[in-house]
């Protein structure tokens, strides 16, 4: 349901009503929009009790009425910010737990008593979850008014920073389920906890004074340009400088600190009425929030924005702002270094086009009044137990955080369609091109290489060709891709050669986390891949983005090499679509900067941290191969490998990027060496402690074959044909996987601790068993036994220790867990260059050590079985080895509810009566890669029946969790097999 304009005022009700309006503790934006709704309720003759932590002046500036009652109370904490632009995810969860979870019982008791004491007719929440539950306990109807809900915001935090807080998401969703319906504001996020929705226009505060009146009061003439700086307060320690502004401009600073400001910066009073000041300005520079975006749109004020990290509401507001041509993104580096001018000048050339209604406060107030008077807006079909059940499912759904973080759950989209409602964002299917499909790859001459008939490569070339065609941005419905395409359109010089590479993700069939311990691994490159287009350009000929050009002009050194990258698909996650840097930033004098310094360079702005995987390949080539880059480089990255699913999306980006850089600069790097260099990118520049199997599979793999490799460090044994009667599938659990997470790193540390303890024990036994000075051997060990101990005392890789030696000699020497400080005191270090032991933390040692030793044995047996005669016993044994691997992961602590459920479904299907009546179809499954979520690999007979059973498993998992698993099936060539394409545009045939 959508209600637009046409409501001039809220007519007085026959009944005098009492509203309890709860306001979240996150930011002024919520309070300011609540003001507008409350103002109209009071004008209609009702009492409104506002429960808020915001200062009184936010409300009393607009409302002077005895019918307004302010109750100072904060029942949730919102998102805790480490600084003006960065949310601290773990701190947010811990603060919420402290504020709303621990005292929950007393909160509910207090609120129920208070609601009854004021005789509330309706509870309104923006968007305090516990208020909905308190209203239900008090027997009062409740309604939410918002553009986002906290279950959606916190879901990503739970997976990224505080898995132990996952019950928070469930509880919030359940509380929201008691809400009768949602009044949904524009720029909204997916909010499937609310089953009934009414869309209203923007809620915007009214203006008190005209532009001329405001400027007159401030003594600013009409010919002076004004930018308002609005970050919710000037960041502490941030020194503003006069040269930050274009000549003749003034900057009005909201919430300025007490430090002295330059003469062209003016501090606004703390209680300044921001809408009036905005309407009197020519541009705004700040961070995105509902209040700033809605009022910028309403007053057609161009908005230069800087991304706020880890607040998941932002992408939706940003898309709305850019849809109406009202926004320009400034990268954080330029904000902090004062390169404001090109952004401000670009913003003032915009023509914001929002022409929608801005009376959402009136509309919402009327709906609330009607509801309090007894009108029913809720659907009987989706009421009561159905909503509660959906909310519980939502809790599980949201803690997954699918590979594209803002995609809507399938079951939610289906429910929306049933009601004839529109969804809140577009599909996140990265395979659906948003561009016209009438272009032909014949627009390019392929001067080197072969597309190998790969449909994704041909589609990438079509998209590349279309960058140089006229494109109607206004008619494009996928507005969140517009900025990517605009940036990419100016990336290349079409008169020069472009190099294209392709690198697939991989399915970890068996071997997994044992790679860093030297195991044999078997990996299959998957069908999904990353494509990268690179062009090497003379600096004077490179088309530069305006802010990059301004940065060069400021240095006054003339054209210098610049790296510019566009990443397709970035707007479907919360990362910036572009990245640029001067290549001189990678130099410290005449030498490349250290990896540690590079890690800090990319970590400064989390929305651009992704660039470390791409740009990091250049630094590694500089440091490891002594390459120097004198030309500018333009790169376009487009990956169809889903993120966070444990199929090596990062390795595919690294391998494709380095392959393209190498090809464009004439570097001859073997596939094996390239994989090792890409591992260096991930370990040393990104800072993720991965082994090498991911990069090796992406670089050296071949279609429909398993890459057999001993990770000591990366010895390819060959390619193993997948027998025609065997098939592998990947099934995504929906739980987000990250090898940068603490669980993977702690298990790796535990394994290296175990290796150190084994080596120490072997050395001690060896010294006790060596002949004494009289030539006698006190233990009378045979010579070969001493040699074994000597080998084990210098053990390079855990996987070189056999299971029987481990069980006979060393298993009893290993503790189940060990404190970091105790280990370091006794053993000094664990000799792993890519992880660091936390002295205060305990690590699992025995299980983490046992896993790679037994896994290496399992992989060897698996490889041998693949080449044996086809039989039921062969498939059963292969499946059993995968099951054993899966439960070994769990013993290490790397399991997850979702992957365990999928493996259980495979087991149930395998042992069902139809399967047991004849030759089976499915035989085994295991979690893959770094564990703790992600994808499982299943093995079965290559037949139609097995494919049908895989589909049944998908449906059963969806019915249990609300999430339809992504299915990985099929294979494709690795980067080495694909090589590279060298292409050039046929400019003579270009159609204008």
UniProtKB/TrEMBL annotation:
Domain spans labelled GHMP kinase N-terminal: 613-701
Lineage per the UniProt record: Eukaryota, Viridiplantae, Streptophyta, Embryophyta, Tracheophyta
Pfam families assigned: GalKase_gal_bdg, GHMP_kinases_N
UniProt cross-references to SUPFAM superfamilies, sorted A to Z: GHMP Kinase, C-terminal domain, Ribosomal protein S5 domain 2-like, UDP-Glycosyltransferase/glycogen phosphorylase
Keyword Isomerase set for record: no
Gene3D superfamilies: 3.30.230.10, GHMP kinase, C-terminal domain, Glycogen Phosphorylase B
Domain Galactokinase N-terminal: 495-536
Protein biosynthesis is among the record's keywords: no
Membrane-spanning ranges: none
Keywords, alphabetical: ATP-binding, Nucleotide-binding
Organism of this sequence: Centaurea solstitialis
Domain of life: Eukaryota
Name of this protein: L-arabinokinase
GO biological process: carbohydrate metabolic process
One MF annotation (Gene Ontology) recorded for this entry: ATP binding
UniProt xrefs under InterPro entries: Galk_glycosyltransferase (IPR012369), GalKase_N (IPR019539), GHMP_kinase_C_sf (IPR036554), GHMP_kinase_L-arabinokinase (IPR053205), GHMP_kinase_N_dom (IPR006204), Ribosomal_Su5_D2-typ_SF (IPR020568), Ribsml_uS5_D2-typ_fold_subgr (IPR014721)
């Amino acid at each position: 349901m959508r209600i637009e304009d046409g409501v001039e005022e809220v007519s007085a009700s026959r009944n005098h009503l009492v509203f309890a309006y709860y306001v979240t503790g996150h930011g002024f934006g919520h309070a300011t929009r609540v003001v507008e709704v409350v103002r109209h309720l009071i004008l209609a003759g009702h009492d409104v009790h506002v429960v808020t932590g915001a200062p009184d002046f936010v409300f009393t500036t607009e409302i002077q009425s005895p019918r307004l009652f302010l109750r100072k109370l904060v029942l949730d904490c919102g998102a805790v910010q480490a600084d003006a632009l960065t949310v601290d995810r773990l701190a947010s969860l811990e603060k919420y737990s402290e504020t709303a979870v621990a005292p929950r019982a007393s909160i509910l008791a207090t609120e129920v008593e208070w609601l009854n004491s004021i005789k509330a007719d309706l509870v309104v929440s923006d968007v305090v979850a516990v208020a909905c539950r308190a209203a239900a306990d008090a027997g009062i109807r409740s309604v939410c008014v918002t553009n986002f809900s906290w279950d959606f915001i916190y879901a990503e935090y739970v997976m990224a920073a505080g898995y132990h807080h996952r019950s928070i998401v469930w509880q919030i969703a359940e509380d929201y389920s008691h809400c009768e319906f949602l009044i949904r504001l524009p720029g909204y996020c997916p909010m499937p906890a609310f089953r009934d929705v009414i869309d209203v226009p923007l809620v915007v505060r009214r203006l008190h004074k005209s532009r001329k009146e405001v400027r007159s009061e401030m003594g600013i003439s009409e010919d002076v340009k004004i930018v308002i700086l609005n970050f919710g307060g000037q960041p502490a320690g941030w020194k503003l400088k006069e040269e930050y502004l274009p000549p003749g401009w003034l900057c009005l600073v909201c919430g300025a600190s007490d430090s002295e400001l330059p003469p062209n910066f003016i501090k606004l009073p703390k209680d300044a009425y921001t809408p009036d000041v905005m309407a009197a300005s020519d541009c705004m520079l700040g961070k995105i929030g509902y209040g700033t975006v809605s009022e910028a749109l309403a007053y057609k004020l161009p908005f230069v924005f800087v991304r706020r990290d880890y607040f998941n509401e932002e992408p939706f507001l940003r898309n709305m702002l850019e849809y109406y041509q009202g926004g320009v993104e400034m990268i954080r580096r330029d904000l902090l270094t004062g390169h404001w001018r090109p952004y401000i000048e670009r913003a003032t050339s915009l023509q914001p086009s929002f022409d929608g209604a801005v009376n959402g406060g009136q509309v919402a107030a009327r709906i609330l009044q009607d509801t309090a008077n007894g009108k029913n807006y809720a659907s009987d079909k989706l009421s009561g137990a159905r909503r509660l059940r959906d909310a519980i499912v939502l809790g599980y759904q949201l803690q997954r955080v699918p590979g594209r973080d803002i995609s809507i759950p399938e079951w939610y989209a289906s429910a929306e369609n049933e009601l004839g409602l529109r969804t809140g964002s577009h599909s996140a299917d990265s395979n659906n091109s948003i561009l016209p499909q009438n272009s032909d790859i014949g627009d390019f001459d392929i001067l080197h290489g072969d597309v190998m008939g790969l449909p994704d490569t041909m589609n990438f070339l079509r998209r590349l060709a279309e960058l140089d065609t006229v494109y109607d941005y206004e008619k494009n419905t996928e507005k969140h891709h517009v900025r990517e395409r605009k940036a990419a359109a100016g990336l290349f010089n079409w008169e020069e050669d472009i190099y294209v590479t392709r690198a697939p993700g991989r399915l970890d069939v068996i071997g997994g986390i044992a790679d860093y311990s030297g195991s044999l691994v078997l990996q299959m490159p998957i069908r999904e891949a990353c494509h990268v287009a690179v062009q090497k350009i003379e600096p004077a000929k490179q088309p530069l983005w305006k802010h990059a050009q301004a940065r060069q002009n400021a240095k006054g050194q003339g054209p210098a090499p610049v790296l510019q990258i566009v990443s397709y698909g970035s707007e479907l996650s919360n990362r910036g679509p572009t990245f640029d840097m001067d290549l001189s930033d990678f130099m410290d004098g005449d030498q490349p900067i250290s990896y540690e310094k590079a890690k800090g360079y990319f970590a400064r702005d989390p929305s651009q941290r992704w660039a470390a995987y791409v740009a990091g390949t250049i630094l590694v080539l500089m440091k490891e191969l002594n390459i120097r880059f004198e030309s500018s480089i333009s790169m376009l990255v487009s990956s169809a490998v889903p993120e966070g699913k444990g199929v090596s999306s990062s390795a595919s980006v690294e391998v494709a990027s380095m392959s393209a850089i190498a090809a464009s600069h004439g570097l001859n790097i073997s596939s094996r060496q390239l994989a090792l260099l890409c591992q260096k990118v991930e370990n040393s520049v990104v800072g993720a402690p991965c082994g090498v199997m991911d990069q090796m599979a992406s670089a050296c793999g071949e279609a429909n074959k398993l890459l057999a490799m001993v990770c000591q460090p990366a010895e390819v044994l060959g390619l193993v044909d997948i027998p025609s009667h065997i098939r592998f599938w990947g099934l995504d659990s929906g739980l987000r996987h990250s090898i940068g997470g603490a669980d993977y790193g702690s298990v790796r540390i535990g394994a290296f601790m175990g290796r150190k303890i084994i080596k120490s024990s072997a050395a001690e036994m060896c010294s006790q068993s060596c002949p004494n000075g009289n030539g006698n051997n006190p233990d009378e060990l045979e010579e070969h036994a001493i040699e074994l101990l000597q080998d084990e005392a210098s053990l390079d890789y855990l996987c070189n220790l056999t299971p029987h030696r481990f069980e006979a000699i060393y298993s009893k020497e290993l503790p189940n867990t060990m404190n970091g400080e105790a280990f370091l005191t006794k053993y000094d270090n664990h000799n792993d260059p890519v992880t660091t032991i936390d002295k205060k933390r305990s690590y699992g040692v025995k299980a983490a050590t046992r896993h790679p030793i037994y896994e290496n044995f399992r992989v060897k047996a698996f490889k041998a079985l693949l080449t044996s005669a086809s039989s039921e016993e062969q498939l059963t044994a292969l499946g059993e080895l995968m099951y054993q691997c899966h439960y070994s992961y769990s013993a290490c602590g790397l399991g997850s509810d979702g992957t365990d459920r999928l493996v259980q479904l495979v087991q149930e299907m395998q042992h069902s009566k139809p399967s047991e009546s004849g030759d089976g179809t499915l035989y085994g499954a295991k979690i893959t890669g770094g564990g703790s979520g992600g994808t499982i690999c299943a093995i079965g007979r290559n037949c139609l029946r097995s494919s049908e059973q895989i589909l049944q498993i998908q449906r059963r998992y969806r019915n249990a969790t609300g999430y339809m698993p992504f299915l990985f099936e099929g294979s494709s060539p690795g980067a080495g097999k694909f090589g590279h394409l060298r292409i050039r545009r046929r400019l003579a045939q270009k159609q204008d």
